[in-house]
Amino acid sequence: MAYSEKVLDHYENPRNVGTFKTEADIDKDEIGTGLVGAPACGDVMRLEIRVRDGLIADAKFKTFGCGSAIASSSLATEMIKGMTLDQAATIKNTQIVEELNLPPVKIHCSVLAEDAIKAAIEDYKKKHPK
Amino acid sequence: MSAPNPDKIAVSVPDGVKLPIFMDNHSTTAVDLRVVQAMLPFFTNHYGNAASRNHSFGWMAEAAVEHARGQIAALLGGDAKEIVFTSGATESNNLALKGAASFLRKQGNHIITVETEHKSVLDTCKRLQREGFEVTYLRPASDGLVSPEQVVAAMTDKTIVVSIMTANNEIGVVQPMEAIGAAIKARNPKCLFHTDAVQAFGKIPFDVEKAKIDLASITAHKLYGPKGIGALWVRRKPRVRIDPLIDGGGHERGMRSGTLPVPMIVGFGKAAELAKGEMAAEAIHLRALRDRLHRGITARLTETYVNGSLERRLPGNLNISFAFVEGESLLMALKDVAVSSGSACTSASLEPSYVLRALGVGEELAHTSIRFGLGRFNTEAEVDYVIDLVVKSVERLRTLSPLWEMHQDGIDISTIQWTPH
C-alpha cells in the first residue's frame, strides 16, 4: 500500500524520540509515562510527558509497530507539547487520522496514540493526587 | 545526555546494482528472456487451436503443446501423458483435492494435510469439510518438518488423500517426501498422495516415482515462466482417477476442459527445460547468496532468529525474525528491495503468519519476520547492498523501539502486563 507523505516524513524523521530517564538532572515527579499495546499484537507505544507549571513542557516516545504507528506517536508528541493536561486529554484519534491521511486499516494506530496520551496523563496525575 | 536521535541512514548503492531489487522470488519470478523468445511465435504465427485436428495451424499448436508436456514431465520424472494443464497451482490444488474427494467419496471421507500448507490447499480442505469430509491438519515440528510416523499415525481406513507440500512458500522447508510417500503406501497402497510442489519444482530434485506421489501441483511463474499456466501431474500407472471441476470439450483427458493457452504452455515447457539443465548449478549459486545474506546479517545484528530448518531448506530462502522491530516498519525502510513479511500489518486479517504460528514461533516474533526469496537474477553485489541496508535499518528502528530498550535494560518483556488491543 502507498503511504501518505506525512506518514513517510514522520517515519523517516521521527520527532521527539527517546526517554527522559537517561537525561541528567531529571525530576521524576515531572514525568508521566503511558505504555500501551502489546508485542503480540505488533504494536507497543511508550509516550512520556514532562509537566512543568501545569503545561506539557516536553514529550518523548518510542514505538514498536508499523510505519503508521511510528508516525501516529511521533505526531502525538508534537501535538501535546505546550498543552495543559486537560487540553491534551481532549485529543481525539480522528485528528491524527486526518493529519496523517491514515487509511481505514491503520486507524487502530491512531487509537493507540490517543490511548498513549491518556495513559501518560493518568500516570502523571496518579503521582500528583489533588 | 539526550537520547539518541535516529539519523537518516546512509547506504550507498554499489556500481552495477539497479534499484529496485527483487528478492521476492517465492511470490513470482521474472520470465527468462529465453522463455519469452520461445513463446513469441505462438502469439502471431502459430496461433492455431491445439484441438483443431483438421488443419496445419492446429497440428502445429498441438505439436508444440505435446513437446512442452514432455519438457515438463521430464523435470518431475513422469510421463508427458500425465500432465493436465490448468490456470495455475491454485486451480491444480483445487482440482487434485476436490477431484479426488469427489471420485473417492464411496471409499472414504478422510483427508490429511498440514497446518503450514498454502491457502489454496487449506481453504479447499475447509470447503470439503463443509461438504461432509473430515480433515486432519498435522502440526509440524518447530523446524517446520512433518515426520512419516506422524502422517501414518493420522491415517485411518477412511483416509483417501494425504496432501503435503514439498517445499514451503514462506519458510522454504523441504519435507522428507520419499520417506512420507513410502510410509503412506505401506499403510494403504490405495490412499492417494498429493503434493503442492510449486516451490520445489525446478529448484531442487523432485521425482514423483521416488516419492510415490499420485498427484502433483506445479506452476510456471515460480520458475521463470509466464503467469496463468500451471499443471496437475496425474499418475497413470496405476491409474489415478479424479472428477473434473470444469466440464466442456473434454480437453486434457476430460480432467480439465478449455482451449489450451498454447504460448503459455510453450513458455512453461521452455522454463522447465532450462531448469532441468541449470538447476544444479543454480542451486549452488543461490545457496551461496543465501548463506552470504544470512552471515552478513547475523555477523552485525544480535537477536535475529531463522524460522524453520536451515538444513532442509530451499537454497534461495531465508526467513528471519528481527526481534523488537515490527516487520512492516522494516519493509518501509527496505522500500527499494522487494521482500515480504509475516507481520499482521501486511495481511488483511491482522493476524501474523499462520505458518510461523504453526511452528510455535511466538506472535511477537512472527510480527518481526522477513522473507527473502533469492532467484536466478540476483547478484552478490545486490546481496551486499541488502545486508547493509537491512542492518542499518534494523539498528535505526531498534533505537525507536521501547521493547529493544527494555531488552537492553535487562527487562523480560514477557513479564509485563500488556494491554492487547
DSSP helical segment count of chain A: 5
**Helix/strand/pairing class of chain B, anyone?**
alpha/beta
What's the overall average pLDDT of chain A, rounded? 94
Quick one: biggest sheet of chain B? 7 strands, mixed
Strand % of chain B is: 5-15%
Strand content of chain A: 15-25%
Q: Report the uncertain regions of chain B.
A: 1-6
Q: Give the mean pLDDT of chain B.
A: 95
Structure description:
The complex is a heterodimer of chains A (130) and B (421). Chain A has 130 residues and is α+β, with helices and mostly antiparallel strands. In chain A, 43% of the residues lie in helices and 22% in strands. Chain A is built from five helices and three strands. In chain A, strands 1-2-3 form a three-stranded antiparallel beta sheet. Chain A starts with a helix and ends with a helix. The mean pLDDT of chain A is 94. Chain B has 421 residues and is an alpha/beta fold. Chain B is 38% helix and 13% strand. Chain B has a seven-stranded mixed beta sheet, sandwiched between helices. In chain B, strand 5, helix 7 and strand 6 form a beta-alpha-beta unit. In chain B, helix 1 runs antiparallel to helix 8, helix 4 packs parallel to helix 5 and helix 6 packs parallel to helix 7. The longest helix of chain B is centred in the C-terminal third of the chain and has 39 residues. The two termini of chain B are 34 Å apart. Classes of the chains: A alpha+beta (130), B alpha/beta (421). Chains A and B meet through helix 1, strand 1, strand 2, strand 3 and helix 2 of A and helix 9 and helix 13 of B.
